[in-house]
Design goal:
69 residues, mainly alpha, elongated, DoxX, DoxX family protein, membrane
Length: 69
């Protein structure tokens, strides 16, 4: 549910509500940082670890683009 809410917030940011988009990007970054931390603590370096890193990079890029405008 958190990922869906974050994605909806990013879409709202694109639709013209910039503060919601910024908050959603920050929330997604925190979510994926915690996901990566949990995978590292569990010594799980599977494909999911790489996916979480990729989604983290996308969330950071979304935040950077939002703050650049």
């Amino acid at each position: 549910m958190l990922k869906v809410a974050g994605a909806a917030g990013l879409l709202l940011g694109l639709a013209g509500v910039p503060l919601v988009g910024t908050a959603a990007a920050i929330g997604l970054i925190l979510y994926f940082v915690c996901a990566l931390y949990t995978h590292i603590r569990a010594h799980d370096y599977s494909v999911q670890f790489g996916l979480a890193g990729g989604f983290l990079a996308l969330a950071v890029t979304a935040l950077a683009l939002d703050l650049a405008t």
